[in-house]
Amino acid sequence: MRVGLLVVLIVVGISYAVYWCVDLWGHRQEWLATSASTLAVALSGILIFFLSTLGVSDFAVSTAIYTPTKWVSIKRLPGTLNVQGVLPFVMMSVGFIGVVHVDPFTLIALVGAQVVGALASPRIVVKLPERAIKQWIAGGLLLAGVFILASRLHLIAGNGTATGLTGWTLMIGCVLQAVYGALNNIGIGSYALTTATVYALGLNPLVAFPIMMSGSALSVAAGSSIFIYYGDYQRKIASVASLAGLIGVAAGLIAFAHFNVAIVSWLVVGVLFYTAINLLIGLRRKRP
Is Membrane one of the keywords (predicted)? Predict the structure, then answer.
């Protein structure tokens, strides 16, 4: 089953890349007209997906970078965050499935549930008004920050040893992963939520990595293809950050065994709350 998932991930990655390239070529004038510095976006992409490989939400870090720089409008932020992440996620998934042991049936079930959730919501997201997207993103950032903070303060158990789920715990995990897949399309990352779920259900914390990477790769690919179809994303930012992000993923996989993720988690908590509060302040100032 694990080999089958790896094959699916690779096929999805190649198919997605071809589909995306066709869209980029058809809108190359828009790509060239974007004023953002290619080098600056590339460096940001390396940082975003290096941290993402270590378990720090790329949605959160990207939002913290793209919002103040105004590289991406709020309306196109959910699509951009999803589209740019697919290829790095596929690379992460292949890396983590090979080094972290997880029950194959549990892995397939949780990843499949997240894909179902992702397929159910993007057509709704592209029609949401900008104010609603800001509210959802701010709420998601605060929620992710609370989960990470709770895990760091040991309010959420993180000492499980199981590598698989059965019965009602598997059902709960699948339902939650489906919800997280839907939230991805609103620009709310699933890393912190998946990690908290893994902790709460008694799994080994390391099991979160292949689950959240594989789930993100396939669910985000499903949702992103629809964002690409509607053209509801920033093409240059997403493409440059995604390709540069592959370098960040490679560096992150090398550093994974030696990096102190706890330090990064404390930093990202600050980033999450700072970005969310800024969005909420902006909403309050522009209240109709």
Answer: yes
- Cα separation of 180 and 121, whole Å? 11
Burial label, 113 (beta-carbon count in 10 A; 0-12, 13-18, 19+): buried
| Residue 119, φ and ψ in degrees, nearest 5 | -70, -20
Element (H, E) at 20: helix 2-26
User: 85 CB contacts (<8 Å, ≥6 apart)?
Assistant: 49, 52, 58, 59, 216, 220, 224, 242, 245
DSSP 3-state of 212: helix
* Domain assignment of residue 34, given as a range: 2-285
Is residue 43 within 8 Å of 251, Cβ to Cβ? no
CA–centroid distance for 205 within its chain:
18
Strand partners for 162 = 203
Query: What would the DSSP string read from start to end of 206-275?
Result: GGHHHHHHHHHHHHHHHHHHHHHHHT-S-HHHHHHHHHHHHHHHHHHHHHTTT--HHHHHHHHHHHHHHH
**Tokens at 73, concatenated:** 């409008």
| pLDDT mean for each 10 residues of the chain (288 residues) | 80 93 93 91 94 81 88 88 91 81 84 82 62 71 73 64 83 87 71 71 76 80 84 93 95 76 65 73 67
Tell me how crowded residue 1 is: count the other CB atoms within 10 A of its CB.
10
**E strand or H helix at 193, and its extent?**
helix 191-200
Decide: helix, strand or coil at residue 185. Answer: coil
Q: Is 138:77 a contact under the CB 8 Å cutoff?
A: no
Number of domains in the chain: 1
Q: What is the pTM of this model?
A: 0.73
Q: Which two tokens stand for residue 208?
A: 């979160």
Q: Give the orientation angle of helix 38-53 with respect to helix 77-99, to 10 degrees.
A: 40
| 3-state SS, residue 36 | coil
